[in-house]
Amino acid sequence: MTTPPALARQIPGFNAPGVGFEQPFAMLEACHERVQRTLALLGRLRDHVRDHGADEPARQAARDVLRYFDIAAPLHHEDEERHVFPPLLARGAADVVALVQRLLQDHHHMVADWAAARQPLQALADGRCDALSAADAAVLDRFAERYARHIKDEEHVAYPAASHLLPDATLQAMGQEMAGRRQSPVAGRSGPVSPR
Ligand SMILES: [Fe+2]
Ligand SMILES: [Fe+2]
Q1: Domain boundaries, the chain
Q2: Which CATH architecture fits 20-182?
Q3: How far is the CA of 77 from the centre of ligand 1 (A)?
Q4: Interval between CA 3 and ligand 1 midpoint (Å)
Q5: How far apart (Å, rounded) are the C-alpha atoms in residues 107 and 27?
Q6: What's residue 184's pLDDT?
Q7: Could you tell me the sign of the dihedral formed by the alpha carbons of 155, 157, 160, 161, in that order?
Q8: What is the mean pLDDT of residues 77-104?
Q9: For the whole model, what pTM was predicted?
Q10: Considering 43, 76, 169, 193, which has the largest number of Cβ atoms within 10 A of its Cβ?
Q11: Which segments of 52-189 are extended strands (E)?
Q12: Count of CB atoms within 10 A of residue 33's CB?
């Protein structure tokens, strides 16, 4: 199983040094780290716009946040829905099954949250607005806050339980499928998010 390094770098969130698709759960955790870094960038962007308005650095940061959550986050959710959640729903303990059902609901809410949150960010990126309103702030808060508990539950409960259930051959196939889905022209089209 190999992933062309140049192409891997094109996928936001999948350029973690020292982590490869042969360790799929490490890749999933690397994606969480990038989610958290991109949410931190979003927080700095909001402070910057409040203090300085929507200048070029703000527009670039908005483009970086948009690129990450438009491209990499859906791929990450699909990784989990294909490989992590099904074995837990089929063979997990009752409390784990209930948690996975909530994680799946979170994914649906995150799609709706992002559809709302990306509107003010796109307006910033396009130079169509100079400030974020209180309503924009509420939408961005809701989007960011849902991730905190979600990531914690995945890393502390779902990932350990799923990796315990999956044999090595299945883990290898999981990593290959994750790598393969990131080699499509659509997935790689928009280029990397700047490291921050
Ligand atoms: Fe998730
Ligand atoms: Fe996740």
Answers
A1: 20-182
A2: Up-down Bundle (1.20)
A3: 5
A4: 23
A5: 19
A6: 64
A7: negative
A8: 98
A9: 0.84
A10: 193
A11: none
A12: 13
